[in-house]
Predict the structure.
Amino acid sequence: MTSRLTHLLLAIATTVAVVAADQNDTAKALLEAARKTAVVDGNLTAAIRQYAAIVETYSKSDRATVADALVRMAECYEKLGDTQARKIYERVVREFSDQTGQVALARVHLGRGERSDGPRAMALRKVWNNETPQIAGARGDTQYAISADGRYMTYVDNYNTALVLRDLTTGADRRLTSGGYPGSSPWGGIYQSAISPDGAQVAFNSCTANQTTCEIRVASLTGTGIPVSRRLFGGDDVTFIAPLDWSPDGKWLAVTLQRKDRTAQVGLLAVSDGALRVLKSVDWRGTTRMFFSPDGRDVAFDLPLNETSIKRDVFVLATDGSREVAAVAHPSNDIVIGWTPDGAHLLFASDRGGAMGLWGQGFRERKPQGAPELVKPDIGNVSPLGITRTGALYLGVRATNQDVELASIDLTTGKQIAPPVKPALRFTGSNSQPTWSPDGKSLAYVSERGEESVVVIRAMETGDIRELNVPPGLPYFSGLTWAPDGGSFAVRGQDLKGRVGVFRIDARSGDVVPIRLRSPAEYLTYEGFFWSPDARRMYYHGNLGSIYELDLASGNERILVSGPSTDDGPKGPISRMGPISLSPDGRWIAAYRSEPATKSQTVVLIPVDGGEPQELLRVSEPERIGNRSMPWAPDGHGILIKKETSVGTELWFVPISGESPRKIDLDVRSLGTVRLHPDGRQIAFDSTQFSSEVWVLENFLPALKARR
């Protein structure tokens, strides 16, 4: 074979591989978009049309995608009660024998077919949709709790400062705590609750700002109005604690907690006197949930496989600490869901079938029995709320639909030059945190790919895309910011060792190195960290509003603004600094400051070389200043701020010269991170829509019992 022919064949093979990879990415994006239409929007008919289009598009080129789309389309028909579902499942079994995974799923569904005079088929239905902008669930939280009879649910409201009881039958809400001013306790508040088996009490956590301390409280659900809660447990060394389940007799709470030294534990808390029984010290990431077995003798929970993995296994531990068994051990990601009412099965979510599905592990004599069985495929990103006495499984479904958009504006007139558009994105609905390169020729952003985060770099002139797969050692990061030399990014992140700080991501290789790691007593926010123009120093925001300057060569740190020693003063919550932004010339820091005493927020200018802050803008309730980014104009003459109003989010330009602020005429529903192009005329932003829902899966127990 000649050298020229060899090179030609290699070139052809490479081209085919690239085309195939691009086609695979597109297919995945289309499937995910259809899944969101079905699960997030609840529009099964529209999802069916999307799946049908996928089948038609890939019918001659990608059998795996077609089989996957057919099964998902059949599931939509099944939820609608349409007999078309069975025909599609039969087609998959008949025509796609080479796609063993999808054939297995189709057979599972076909095996569930019931005669009209038999028991009702398994059904998944939505019971609550959280669309109110101010409540925590609208930001994607799904840590709700369900009562044992399935009638009541608790959730957090008013930026995590109030606990609410909702009657799912009548739709009535009742506040269980008074709540507070949204800016008074950033990162503090209520995160988790659990309703007692008899429905008479609720346990919940209450954390201070930045989760410096946290406690468990218990309140009665009887009567009307806001009940008086009692403090059950807390301590100065407890930075976080959450009640995850009540024992069947109502005497104990299963809790997960983290201490100031970064150690984590799972244990039991006596409801009578708050005595803590530590059952096990665990990985710093702790467990997602804990559930008592129906007889109260064991608790089930999940933990990471090891310190280098984000995947989890499920364990069962005796409540007296005497024995522990690995109930679900598998290379996949396995999350505990709960016990069936008879204790015969332990339910868990697993991605071992590709997408997250619901599985049941037989359990007898306090040991796992046999192989796990698939109960329902593709349940999505869910959080278990609990299983009622009748065997209905309640799930919180978190949906985040965010994408990067581009627009052209005139800062002088406030007019929109060109309306927002979305650049071509491979994974729609999962892109955020845009940042411009220093020369303005590239735009980088973060794309969420299931359990992985990818940094995407897009060349603006050609549209070419390059992706950085960030190493698994840094699975959690935010605040993507391009370095002045264009060779790296800074992010706030947390590695698998539990270390939190600012990390550098190489823009070519994706390699990660820490720039500055915090101590256990510190807090570094994602709200702002910036290089000086010469890249010799970095500025960032930390504990209760302190602002720091770090000399990157020597490691010396200087405090520019000291935050208060606590979040509360003798007369209530006190003023604190929020997100920051460094001016292009490195002389000024713009900062957001909340003032709970006056129920207002201000934007201030802080001179880097010393001096008193200067107030630029003040807003009062019900308006608020958005708490993410405040980009400077490239010429340093002003900053862009977000203003939250009763009708939505607005973008304003605030000159530093003292001129009146002017609203930017930009038609967007929501704004997250906002970045100005070096030319001062283009902006990139992520438009984010958070929603969360509660679904209930009914009539799945007969299928499990039939397989015993």
User: Anything to note?
Assistant: The CA atoms of residues 203 and 384 lie 17 Å apart. The mean pLDDT is 83. The domain at 411-537+577-680 is CATH 2.120.10.30 (Neuraminidase).
